[in-house]
Amino acid sequence: MLKNMRIKTRFMLLGLLLIAMLGGGAGVGIFGVWLQNAKLGDVLGAQERALTMLRHAEAARTHFYMQRIELKDATLRGSDQELFKGHIAAMNANYEAAQKELAALRQIASEDDKPRLDNLIKQYAELNKRYNEALEHYEYYDALGSAILIDGMLRGQDAPIDKALTALRDTFEQRLIEQSAADSASASHRFNLTVVFFILSTIVAMIAYWVVFSWITRGLMRQLGGDPADAVAIARRIADGDLTTAVELQPGDRESLLAAIADMQEHLRDLIKHLRDSAGALSGQATALSASSVQIAAASEQQNEAASSMASSIEEMTASIGQVAEHSNEALTISRASGELSNRGDEVVQSAAAEMEQIAASAESMTQIIEALGAQSTQISRIVHVIQEIANQTNLLALNAAIEAARAGEQGRGFSVVAEEVRKLAERTTESTREISDMIKAIQDGTGQAVRHMESWSMRVADGMAKARGAGECMRDVKARANDVLAVVNEITHALQEQSAASNQIAQTVEQIARMSQENATAVGSVASSAKQLEEMARTLEGVVAKFRLNPA
Questions:
Q1: pTM, whole model, 2 decimals?
Q2: Pick from 326, 328, 325, 336: nearest CA to 482
Q3: How far apart are CA 158 and CA 154, in angstroms?
Q4: Share above pLDDT 70 across residues of the chain, in percent, rounded to a whole number
Q5: Rounded to 5 degrees, what angle do the CA atoms 310, 316, 319 make?
Q6: Backbone phi, then psi, for 430, in 5-degree steps?
């Protein structure tokens, strides 16, 4: 519970305890004062009662003395009747006053004292009666004799009352003295008990306060882990970037404020080390990225130039394919003309044997030449197939080049390889185009040779008469082969048209690659600028991290 208690709550608890202790001490003092006051009231009441009784007893005794004096004055000065009556009235008044005092005393007296007072009142009444009876024997004309007579009658009569009143006065006086002493002792005892109880309660409260204070202080010190000034000093050093301060902790301390500061300092030290390493690595990577961006920009420029060059080569190849297509069309026209000539030759063979034999001879030579032309046409077909493969590979490489251009970064170098392959394919396409041109030229040469053979065989017409019929059959075969050649030339023409369309599409794709290369170069320029900014930010981060001290000087 104390472990999770906040410092404010602890001090509030300590303050409440102090208030409770002060309130308890004040309560003890107030209770002592209240008890003293309560007892003092009883004491004062008892003392007031005893003093009143003593006062009544003393007053009764005084009035008794005054009565006796008035009696003597009356007997001694009785010659004056008025004066005598005055003394008698005063004597009776003192008697009434004394009896009144005794009656008042009896009202407040204890039950034990009342019989004594009743007896005293009765005796005193009898004495007063005897006083009055004695005074009846007083003669004004014989004052001295009357006085002696009355004195003789009353001598010794008042001694018991005097003694009783004196004893009564002494009794109540002694009681007052004893009551005062007892009350004083009781008050002193109560005061001493109150002081002792107050001192004991104060000591107990101080011990309890010290125990709770020590308990809270120890808990607070365990929570703080040390003096708060040390924690403040360490926190200020950490705030100033000094992470080398050694934090002294108690053995086993893992949860105090200083332990938390030590953990924070350790984690900050690790974080700053990681940031420092990361900043250095980031700076190096930013530098490398900047250099790579420059290289990629240069490679992109070269790639753009290569793409432009390849586009020019593709345009030349397309033009060459167009020329081949034109030559193929011419070959088709020639093939068709050859078929017509074959038909005419067959008619001539049927109408004139001599001429048929010459045509047959010429047709035989033409057959061989056309077979050579067919072989060349086959070679042309093979070359056209190679051109188609090159077109397919060029399309695939163009797709790879687009992917590589989109990635940029370190993989941008691969684009130069793709461009190189595209260049090589373009060269192969150019070589194939040249071979097609050469083959077409060979076909033309063969056609000239066929013409020359036909002229040569014309001179041998006389020798080939026997072979006229065979020549007719050969002419029919030539017709069939001419038709086959016509079909093949048609296929070649159609393939060349498709190759021309594919070349145009390749040219468009290469132009798109060139545009993409230009965009790639622009993007690489932006990457290079960002890499420069990243490098500056990394250096700034290194400068900030360098303000922290991680190792002792």
A1: 0.36
A2: 336
A3: 7
A4: 75
A5: 145
A6: -65, -45
Q: pLDDT per residue over 190-214, tens digit each?
A: 788 888 877 988 898 889 878 877 8
The per-residue pLDDT for 550 is: 67
The Cα–Cα gap between 208 and 213 comes to 8
Cα gap 429→391, rounded to integer Å: 8
Q: At what angle do helices 468-545 and 353-407 cross, to 10 degrees?
A: 10
- pLDDT score for 21: 76
Cα–Cα distance between 241 and 550 in angstroms, integer? 9
CA-nearest of 289, 296, 282, 297 to 532 is 289
Place of tokens 């130069």: 416
Hey, what are 25's tokens? 């001490």
Residue 242 backbone dihedrals phi, psi, to 5 degrees = -90, 105
Q: How many CB atoms lie within 10 A of CB 399?
A: 13
> Tokens 């019989």 — which residue?
115
Distance separating alpha carbons of residues 506 and 498, to the nearest angstrom: 12
Instruction: Tell me the C-alpha to C-alpha distance, in Å, between residue 302 and each of 193, 289, 334, 405, 509.
Output: 112, 19, 47, 13, 18
Contacts of 240 (CB under 8 A, 6+ apart): none
Nearest to 311 by CA among 516, 513, 510, 518: 510
Give just the sign of the alpha carbon dihedral 113, 116, 122, 126.
negative
Task: Note whether 233 and 257 are within 8 A (CB).
Answer: no
